[in-house]
């Protein structure tokens, strides 16, 4: 594998005297939105060679703003808060106006995300529920379903990139996948494999694979099986890759990838059970064990986002943020069996921030550009570079 590195491009204090919980690029990659414990949302744009704060949205929430998400068109911004509400902001020239406040969750809203169509919005909460909202042409929002498939806090929700398929991650260690059937949203798959809180999820651009990261210090890669007709699992995927019966309602996976202190790829034994209903199935095809400081008491992978393959030359690059203050980039071995992918550590900044790193996200347009944010209130911009670049 080519030698690679993360190079710091810029660092600035985004939320003084407060945690910066999340940062999100707009679809054009020209603006960033950040949020934090100061209850504010800040919009950032580049002026000359430096990023500057263009606007501060302060009147929407009464408590910490945990998450921000741009609509696919880039005109709307959603913000999720510990005050149990979600605000919808509309960009008007150089400013933003709060259009509406979505209420209904009984407790802290942890995440908000737009469907690729822009017509649906999902939120999740400490109240253990996932809500799906529908928006019409008049910018009116209506809750169309409330899903209660988790037994603990729901930490994260993410939409499939091309289908109206939704996944959620929870404190109950599980991942649920939902699909609309007969005007109602139902849980179609429960992915059980993590041994602690699942913090974050991301689909690859094709939607065939899902990455999850957890408080158990692992990143797992799941492969989607969209089955037609009988609902029998694909024998090529299940039998050939895992050596288990195609008719079994559970999968026992006997290998995963891990990194030791020298970041050398190893194989060790691990077991995972996957349960499902109807047509939507996911099976674990790989897992990463990046080495984290064994002295750390609070070590959490809090985000994992995959670079857009259609727009980024860094095919398969996966980046993680961690409670040990580090940022790591993993690269997939393109020569490996796609049903048994292997990843290796390509770049690592051990002290990317002076405190926990809460979020990492690739720029959707500029190859290798990455933003991270931290408990210290900062945003840092990084460039992922390989030697032949």
Protein described:
The protein is mainly β and 389 residues long. It has one domain: Methylamine Dehydrogenase, Chain H (7 Propeller), CATH 2.130.10.10. 2% of the residues lie in helices and 52% in strands. The strands form 8 sheets. Strands 14-15-16-17-23 form a 5-stranded antiparallel β-sheet, with no helix packed on it. A hairpin with a 4-residue loop joins β19 and β20 (219-226). It is globular. The model is unreliable at 227-282 and 290-315 (pLDDT under 50). One of its GO terms (biological process) is iron-sulfur cluster assembly.
Radius of gyration: 20 Å
Which structural category fits the helices and strands?
Answer: mainly beta
Overall average pLDDT: 78
CATH class: Mainly Beta
The tally of domains stands at 1
Number of helices: 1
Main pleated sheet: 5 strands, antiparallel
Instruction: Work out the number of β strands.
Output: 31
CATH topology: Methylamine Dehydrogenase, Chain H
**What is the overall silhouette?**
globular
WD repeats: 23-44, 58-90, 102-143, 147-179, 191-223, 350-389
Keywords: Repeat, WD repeat
GO cellular component, one term: cytosolic [4Fe-4S] assembly targeting complex
Protein name: Probable cytosolic iron-sulfur protein assembly protein CIAO1
Topology:
Layout: E1 4-13, E2 20-25, E3 31-36, E4 41-47, E5 50-57, E6 65-70, E7 76-81, E8 86-92, E9 95-102, E10 109-114, E11 120-125, E12 130-135, E13 141-147, E14 154-159, E15 165-170, E16 174-181, E17 184-192, E18 198-203, E19 209-214, E20 219-226, H1 235-242, E21 256-259, E22 265-268, E23 273-276, E24 280-288, E25 301-306, E26 318-322, E27 327-332, E28 343-349, E29 357-362, E30 369-374, E31 378-386
Antiparallel strand pairs: 1-31, 2-3, 3-4, 4-5, 6-7, 7-8, 8-9, 10-11, 11-12, 12-13, 14-15, 15-16, 16-17, 17-23, 18-19, 19-20, 20-24, 21-22, 25-26, 26-27, 27-28, 29-30, 30-31
Pfam families: WD40
Family: Belongs to the WD repeat CIA1 family.
WD repeats: 23-44, 58-90, 102-143, 147-179, 191-223, 350-389
